[in-house]
Amino acid sequence: MLGLGIGEILLIVVLVIVVVGPERLPFLIRSAGRMYGQVRRASDELRRAFVLEADRADAEERYRKLEERRKAAIEARRKAEEDNPGAVAQPSLLSEPPPERLPEDELDEPAPKREEA
After folding, report:
1. 28-41 burial, b if ≥16 CB within 10 A, otherwise e?
2. pTM for the full model?
3. Residue 31's domain spans which residues?
4. What is the count of structural domains for the chain?
5. Which residues make Cβ contacts (< 8 Å) with residue 16, sequence separation at least 6?
6. Which of 66, 65, 90, 86 minimizes the C-alpha distance to 77?
């Protein structure tokens, strides 16, 4: 706590009571508490703003890298198709939408119902 010992803190408290006076001391303490709360809220808001900006920058970088990988994969696929025009084309996860339903033979069989005795 700023390197202050008990003796220094008591001396400061006594000086504040003498200078401010006991009748205005509660008002001073309330005002100091409000200012502390305002400073605390402002620092929390600033910290949140920095974290949000850092997260946004990180997300933009990840998106840029993902786009680069996607473009490289598309180019590699085009090059492979040009090199082997007779090869059977594999479905691409990048260009085709996912199927709406799985074929019936790929679905798990439901568990048989148990008869209660």
Report:
1. eeeeeeeeeeeeee
2. 0.46
3. 9-80
4. 1
5. 25, 28
6. 90
